[in-house]
Amino acid sequence: MAGMDVLVALAGVLLALISQKPLHRIEEGSVGVYWRGGRLLNMTSAPGYHLQWPILTKHANVQVSFKTSVVLDVPCGTASGVLVRFQQVEIVHRLRPHLVLDTMRNYSLRFEKLWIEDVTYHEINVLCSKYTLHQVYISHFDQLDELLQARMSALLAQWAPGLEIMSIRFTKPDLPAAIRESYELVDEEKIKLLVGVMPRSYDFPIDGWYCLAFTRNWILLCIFAKSIEGGPCSH
């Protein structure tokens, strides 16, 4: 009976070792990092199959190729006091392979949540607070991606140099319904204004009467647009 008990125990140990999968695979575009007894080991592994001490050692695939993180429903409080939302912000980034271990030691596997997702929410709020609704939605919208990338890159260079931001893409922010309708109405009035007072042919001289009519209509449109904030006369 004693011999049978020993065999059963050995079989149990063998099954436990097998269940820990000492043979593991690191995916292409990633490096393997390892922990033993909760301590991060000072080594990484390349893509392919590798062996590790079962039970004692744990591993993780850490992506070092380009990766796109999508941050959803980002609030943007403008300097005008109007809150808009970006439904989607895409950040293309990568982790520098030679700084993987430093990043793991400082921030563990949560580095992307801490320094991409959470920082995106914070930096967009800071950025939006410096601009009016008209600037965020129209006049400066095409600059927001570069402005945010510059801010985040400077922050990462100081606190998480292993991470590199490659590009950022914004969706057009969602406006409150009443403000969106007002912007659409202003766009319609601008088109009517230009069509109504523009000469039928560029061969006709633009005389003083045309300039006066255009100026008066433009002033009226500007006054109307003040109810939106900024409007077409901000430049």
UniProtKB/TrEMBL annotation:
Keywords from the UniProt entry: Endoplasmic reticulum, Glycoprotein, Membrane, Signal, Signal-anchor, Transmembrane, Transmembrane helix
GO cellular component, one term: endoplasmic reticulum membrane
InterPro entries given in the database record: Band_7 (IPR001107), Erlin1/2 (IPR033294)
A Pfam family it matches: Band_7
Example of a GO MF term: cholesterol binding
Signal peptide interval: 1-16
Top-level taxonomic group: Eukaryota
Taxonomic path: Eukaryota, Sar, Stramenopiles, Oomycota, Saprolegniomycetes
Membrane topology classification: Single-pass type II membrane protein
Similarity comment: Belongs to the band 7/mec-2 family.
Compartment list: Endoplasmic reticulum membrane
Main location: endoplasmic reticulum
Protein name per the record: Band 7 domain-containing protein
Gene Ontology BP terms: SREBP signaling pathway
Biological source species: Aphanomyces astaci
Domain Band: 21-187
